[in-house]
What does this fold into?
Amino acid sequence: MDVGRTGTVGRRALLTAGAVALAGCTSDAGGERPKAPSAAERAARAEARRRLRSVATAEALRERYDAVLAAHPALSARLGPLRAAAAAHATALGEGGTGAPVTPVDGRTGQTAQTGKTGKNVPAPTPTVSGPSAPPVAADPAVALKELAAAARKTADTHTDALLDAPPEYARLLASVAAAAAVHAYLLTEGGRG
It folds into this structure.
């Protein structure tokens, strides 16, 4: 404690000690202290955070595809199937990985339909660019493809890093999605030269 010139306890030290004492004495209305989350609850929360990060990463790549398609519609035949795959990856990485399966409707354009719980096909949404979060796209299609390939590589790297501490089942899914993103990067660069 801080002892001043007169040998008394300083006001700051007294206030600090009082605040610490009050913090230790607080309780909820029932008089019980809140229970710490169990190991299972902590694991479930960590898993939910991991899935949210993975979905956000996959969604960012899908949004990048949407932005390039909006800026360069002539690339739709080439990018449509890759964009559909990126959307399917985001769905698979989401809540329990049990999203509705995405099935191709037209392989030439990459248009898809989702089969919902009713079993009916629902047309896939058209690519849209949303608000200020949409990434800027280069005016030159070749540059836009290179930037999209870089985004796919970054997505692959992020998913690869995330699988290191993921449970085995989810790690396998992350590894698969990371490999697919790496293939996207290849197809957007080297694969397009042939």
Remarks:
- The first helix runs from residue 11 to 25.
